Amino acid sequence: MTTFEEKIGRDERFESYLQRWGMQGDPFNLELPSVDAFAPFQKGDLRKLKWLLSEGKIGVLTGALGMGKTTACKFLAASLRDESLTAPDPSKHVLPILIHGATYKSADELLRAIILGLELDANKDQASLFEILRRWPHEHQERLAVIIDDVPESGADVVEVSEFLRVLSDIPNISILLNGELKQMRRFLAEVPALLDRIQVHSKLRPMNRKNLKELLELRLRTAGCANYGGLLTPSGFKSLYKFSKGVPRLALKAASNSIHHAAEMDVPIDARIVKAANKRSALKRAFPFLR
Amino acid sequence: MAELKKFYAMKEACTLLGVHPNTIRRWDKEGKIKVVRPEGGQRRISESEIKRLLEKPSVVSPPSSPQPTFPQDEHLSHFLSYVFSYQRDDWELVKRATLIRDDYTCSKCGGKELLEVHHRDGTSRNDPDNLVTLCQKCHQEAHRAPPKVQNRKITPEVPISPKITVPKPEKTKKEEIRPAPVTPKITEAPRHAILDALTPAGLAQRTVFGDLLSAAIVLKTFTPKDLASRVRCPEALTTTFCERMSARGYLKSKNGTFELQVKVAR
């Protein structure tokens, strides 16, 4: 049997396994920017951030790697857009603009990205583009929410960009949410105290505790259509998933996805043995777990 | 057992064909030869395939053709075939090999001093057929002449090429003339101008229209439902988008499915 045939067989087995448990696709998919991707305990944080964005304030969202910062940003952008479509009053509309930090290399490009996000003509000089934003509260009723993902990862000059953000934050009706890894963000903000002073909300995503992670995984299984989720994900399996991921959602979901594939191969529910076999680490990593 | 075909590993096939393993890999990529990959994923080349290649060397295996040009001395020809099949990029080595092959004599005047190696076709292709030993004088002459030779070489092709190029503009002209009275077939407009033409109610709708437009550019032909599922927005909005787009002539509808008729200018 060739490797290709083997792979097809594996896919078929996985599909039939999922159907037996009443599901359609992989329940632990990382790319799921809808409300279903978030457990109820996470929604409090989201509500806080949404309030921040609709009030014209400037905030910072930090957290370690894989804590779901980018997912939260994507979700916020999608939900704000949906809300502004349904609400009839334009003064309550919030226009989200999601920009990835690595896409701009200077403050000028960031400005152009914002204008392009508004679907306006960006083929003008810098001053007239900035004039659009400066006159925003006078000419438009809608609020503007600029969400910048992974700010410190940008190759742009830090002082230039943050000076631009500071000026932008002084304009009413424009709110900014900066998102970045905790240490990088601290270093980024330390260089410009003027921007740091203006930040009103600083929220940090922490690793989940055991209860919350269980809630999240079960929610994923339930939304995928699995009724008997307690039977599929056994307590021992969950325990070793938690131990493996240490409460980091991305790691937990990835490990769970790996183990559901492995469980389909073995045709058994997910237990500790399956999780361990599916997420084998190399000897070096087992000896030095702090190595990335 | 008789049915079992004989398969050669890469190394054996290379020695049989007299080519570099990378050449076989390239032929495999280009689909010139059939290669079997049993378990383990390594290439195995069947005996019949190698026979086929050896029978007509000019078609597939260019490196095997230079062999006749080499002198009969066994060691020398071995050295030359090695240099020309594996070490072509090493100019010093290729130059020395060519000099040895031509016995350190100019192939034009027979001189034995101030020898240089010349590329016949003017490119830097280090084929044994393409390289000749010339003395400095003959080399300079050869380089003065080639532009004429190259021009002559190109000129016989020239009458062919205008034949191809001439009808093309005629065709495009015809295409331009025909649809012009009805509707321009594929117009080009900047993104914001298209969105302005759609007259969205409010900026929120405008941004959603922008998302729909970029989804439409990706899909090219689509139904409103496709767009709605791709952009994750209410379907009523996509239908108004499609209606307004087709009213401006940017979309062509064909029993339920739409086709994009506009090109977004950069």
Compact summary:
The complex is a heterodimer of chains A (292) and B (266). In chain A, 56% of the residues lie in helices and 11% in strands.
Name some characteristics of this structure:
heterodimer; A: 292 residues; alpha/beta; Helicase, Ruva Protein, domain 3; Rossmann fold; 2 domains; 15 helices; 56% helix; elongated; B: 266 residues; alpha+beta; Multidrug-efflux Transporter Regulator, Chain: A, Domain 2; Arc Repressor Mutant, subunit A; 14 helices; 9 strands
Along the chain, the helix and strand elements of chain A come as: HHEHEHHHEHEHHEHHHHHH
Distinct helical segment count of chain B: 14
The counted number of beta strands of chain B is 9
Proportion in β-strands of chain B: 5-15%
Shape, per Cα inertia axes of chain A: elongated
Name the CATH superfamily assignment of the largest domain in chain A: P-loop containing nucleotide triphosphate hydrolases
Order of helices and strands of chain B: EHHEHHHHEEHHHHEHHEHHEEE
In CATH, what is the class of the largest domain in chain A?
Answer: Alpha Beta
Q: Approximately how much helix is present in the residues of chain B? A: 40-55%
User: Which architecture name of the largest domain in chain A does CATH use?
Assistant: 3-Layer(aba) Sandwich
Number of strands of chain A: 5
Terminus-to-terminus distance of chain A: 36 Å
Describe the overall structure.
The complex is a heterodimer of chains A (292) and B (266). By secondary structure, chain A is an alpha/beta fold. Chain A folds into 2 domains: 3-27 and 225-282, Helicase, Ruva Protein, domain 3 (Orthogonal Bundle), CATH 1.10.8; 35-205, P-loop containing nucleotide triphosphate hydrolases (Rossmann fold), CATH 3.40.50.300. In chain A, 56% of the residues lie in helices and 11% in strands. Chain A is built from 15 helices and 5 strands. Chain A has helices at residues 3-20, 40-54, 69-86, 107-117, 126-134, 136-139, 158-170, 182-190, 193-198, 210-224, 229-232, 235-245, 249-266, 272-278, 283-287, and strands spanning 58-63, 94-100, 143-149, 174-181, 201-205. Chain A has a 5-stranded parallel beta sheet, with helices on both faces. Chain A starts with a helix and ends in a 5-residue tail after the last helix. The mean pLDDT of chain A is 79. Chain B has 3 domains: 7-64, Multidrug-efflux Transporter Regulator, Chain: A, Domain 2, CATH 1.10.1660; 70-155, no CATH class; 187-265, Arc Repressor Mutant, subunit A. Chain B contains 14 helices and 9 strands. In chain B, strands 6-8-7 form a 3-stranded antiparallel beta sheet. In chain B, strand 7 (251-254) and strand 8 (257-260) form a beta hairpin. The longest helix of chain B is centred in the last third of the chain and has 17 residues, at 203-219. Chain A binds chain B through residues 1-3, 34, 78, 81-82, 84-85, 90, 93, 95, 117-121, 123, 140, 142, and chain B through 37-39, 41, 190-192, 195, 202-210, 232-234, 237.
